[in-house]
Please model this.
Amino acid sequence: MSLIEWIKIAERMPNLQRSLIVKFVLVGSLNTAFSYCVFASLVYLGLAYAVANFAALLLGLAFSFRTQGAWVFRNRDKRLWLRFTVCWAAIFVFNIGCIAALMHAGLDVYLAGAVALMPSTIMSYFVQKFLVFGSPRRRLGVTTRS
Model:
């Protein structure tokens, strides 16, 4: 899909949805950059890519839970930590699978780790939006009448 097609899709989105995606991308970019630096540094130091990726995931989880939950999805409920962690375990397995497949296709571990970020990020957005931090109604503070 070209950049122009992505822009056209974004223009059709309601402002709230665009704002949510922009916030997710900004916070996620910072977390991703941090996590990738940890990953690359640990691989450089000799750790296996799966171990390095797991360490980067653990260090990024606490930051991501707080910032994505509070700032992006407007949900500060600390009780969601377990759900968040379980969902991230699934994202981790998906990410490792992507890295392994890319390495099998001939990419080196550094490039494979970088390329795997995009599908993992997309998966992360939808998992957090729908499975972790809940419905749009709760996120916006809308309550239902009993």
In short: The chain has one domain: 16-139. The first helix runs from residue 3 to 12.
